[in-house]
Design goal:
It contains 18 helices and ten strands. It has 461 residues and is an alpha/beta fold. The C terminus is likely disordered.
Length: 461
């Protein structure tokens, strides 16, 4: 039985410019993309499909027995949106092992613009949720996606790939935590309300700062940011007064000269009774005079200091990524092993069905001659016969599984079918797998992070 190939076709930030990705993302992020895909599912060119669309990547994950046609229909679909002659130059194509490995890397943040970033896992889960709602996934993609989620979880728990700050704003907040230990009871003044200030505000809010003040030349922008983070606005002309009461100052204005002088900070420190003050200057040119760092209990860091920390952390992440790649390759190998067993599954199902039918028939004959048996005794005989059947079938089932990865597997399947006089292949093997009473392959992958019990021999995945 040929269950088809796993095909992955797509483009990302490494292969295609942003203007191309933007055009495709508008189409591929809309649920209507599945209207096109369902047409290909109906005519048999595809068996299963999922579409992942983010700002950095557009990928089509397919299961098909007609791989050449599948590639063409996806490429044509993209071509319609772009009207570009060189579309193929931007695409990558992976099959089977390479497709599985790529998906696991994507889920684990190993293929992201920022190595180890966790957002892509949530986006992949959203894409899978949409595909299941559209009813375009089946046994193989269901198993594959659940496994991708558990691989990502394993990478996070067994490596430090996501533990170190790799953005300037995040590094600034991490530095503040080092100095104060905890930010839960601390207050912050944001001077400027640009993108870097907003990112810093997000990280500060996540770490539980008690109060945030925002000063910006454009009041509307300050109000917008204050609403988002439940902060207070202060007039830009009076931000200096706020320095007397806050613990942390983050400045990122577009001023051409310093707006915070050593003289001002010295004055503020007297009003603060020399309580520690942490100043992060992420503006270029700098907002704070460098001499401020010479004042006792004032800790000043500029963007160069933070960039040094970021680069060091990136190097540490790259080292941790080597461990993550090893996990991905190991799990890819296991998944491909499982995939190869699908060709022998219909024969295994037929073998188990025949054994169960014989068991039931013989039990009925026995019980008809022993009418005085109690219900408890009948159950005991049932348990005994089930155990006998399981032990008898274990060796032939393991024999088939071990031959599943060999080119000659069809020969061994035929031998088993003849020895046990089994009927031909099931007409609907996928339905057999989906039946809950038979511990279907689809269901067995549904418990992320847990040991997966297989339907064939009860062994771990």
């Amino acid at each position: 039985m040929n269950f088809g190939q796993i095909i992955l076709i797509g483009m990302n930030h490494k292969t295609a410019p942003v203007e191309v990705r933007e055009k495709l993302a508008a189409k591929c992020s809309d649920a209507s993309i599945y209207d096109d895909m369902r047409a290909f599912l109906r005519d048999g060119r595809l068996s299963e499909c999922l579409v992942l669309s983010t700002c950095n990547r557009i990928e089509f994950l397919l299961v098909t027995s007609r791989s050449d046609e599948a590639e063409l229909i996806v490429q044509d679909l993209m071509q319609r949106e772009l009207q570009a002659e060189n579309l193929s130059d931007w695409l990558y194509r992976f099959k089977n092992r390479e497709a599985v490995s790529h998906l696991f890397k994507v889920a684990s943040g190993l293929d992201s613009m920022v190595l180890g970033e966790p957002q892509i896992l949530g986006q992949l889960k959203d894409a899978y949720r949409e595909a299941t709602m559209q009813k375009t996934t089946g046994v193989i993609l269901n198993r594959l996606l659940h496994k991708a989620f558990s691989v990502a979880k394993r990478v996070r728990s067994e490596t430090g790939i996501g533990c170190r700050a790799v953005s300037v704003s995040y590094a600034a907040v991490e530095l503040a935590k080092r100095i104060f230990g905890s930010l839960i009871d601390k207050s912050v003044l944001l001077i400027g309300a640009g993108e870097m200030a907003e990112l810093a505000a997000e990280h500060l809010a996540t770490n539980g700062v008690s109060q945030m003040y925002i000063a910006n030349r454009t009041l509307e922008r300050a109000i917008e940011l204050a609403r988002k983070f439940k902060a207070k606005t202060v007039p830009f002309e009076q931000f200096v007064d706020s320095i007397a009461v806050v613990d942390i100052v983050i400045s990122s204005t577009g001023a051409t000269e310093p707006i915070i002088s050593k003289k001002v900070i010295k004055s503020m420190m007297r009003r603060r009774r020399h309580r520690p003050l942490f100043i992060i200057d992420i503006a270029v040119p700098r907002d704070v005079e460098p001499e401020v760092n010479n004042i006792d209990n004032v800790y000043l860091y500029d963007i160069d200091d933070l960039q040094g920390i970021v680069e060091l952390n990136k190097e540490q992440r790259r080292k941790e990524a080597q461990k993550a790649f090893h996990i991905v390759e190991l799990e890819t190998f296991k998944f491909i092993e499982w995939l190869q067993t699908l060709d022998v599954v219909p024969t295994i199902i037929a073998l188990r069905r025949k054994a169960e039918l014989i068991r039931q028939q013989e039990m009925e004959k026995t019980f008809s001659h022993l009418p005085d048996l109690t219900e408890q005794e009948r159950k005991a005989i049932g348990v005994l016969t089930e155990a006998i059947i399981k032990k008898l079938l274990h060796d032939p089932i393991m024999f088939l599984k071990n031959k599943a990865s060999r080119p000659s597997k069809e020969f061994y399947v035929d031998v088993v079918q003849q020895v046990f006089r089994l009927p031909g292949h099931c007409e609907h093997p996928m339905r057999c797998l989906d039946r809950p009473e038979r511990e279907c392959y689809e269901a067995e992958g549904s418990c992320e992070g847990k040991s997966v019990r297989g339907p064939i021999d009860g062994g771990d995945y």
